[in-house]
Amino acid sequence: MSTQEIYQGLTNEEVEISRSENGSNKSDIEDQGSFWPAFKEVVSEPLFLILVCAALVYFFLGESTEGIIMLIALSIVSGLSIFQENRSRNAVDALKKSVRPLPK
């Protein structure tokens, strides 16, 4: 087996078949910055919105201590979620930078 046979690669027909079956060889993850996309994702979650509404109901009913505790807990959980999302994005970016195409 010669070196040329090893690096020959797929034919155009094989590439088209592979793309139709598996999709393009591109990442769907977009580089959107760091804080704001993660923040938007966290605060648009339905459960987050329901819990904010519940905290507002506590304030409306005069139970401000429970409302404050709920808002503090939501802030802590949201902060941790945003932090973890940023770490994940940084890991994906590092992987993107480390991947290099093979020489022909």
Write the layout of secondary structure elements.
Elements: H1 3-6, H2 12-22, H3 35-43, H4 46-60, H5 64-98
Commentary on this structure:
The chain has 104 residues and is mainly alpha-helical. The chain has a domain at 33-98. The chain is built from five helices and no strands. It has helices spanning 3-6, 12-22, 35-43, 46-60, 64-98.
Which term fits the overall shape?
elongated
| Biggest sheet architecture | none
Number of strands: 0
Strand fraction equals under 5%
Alpha-beta content class: mainly alpha
For the CA atoms, what is the radius of gyration?
A: 24 Å
**Mean pLDDT score, rounded?**
82
Q: Distance between termini?
A: 16 Å
Q: Which runs of at least 5 residues are low in confidence (pLDDT < 50)?
A: none
Helix content: over 70%
Number of helical stretches of at least 4 residues: 5
Topology as a string of helices (H) and strands (E): HHHHH
Descriptive keywords:
104 residues, mainly alpha, 5 helices, 71% helix
What is shown here, in short?
With 104 residues, the protein is mainly α. The protein has 5 helices and no strands. The protein is elongated.
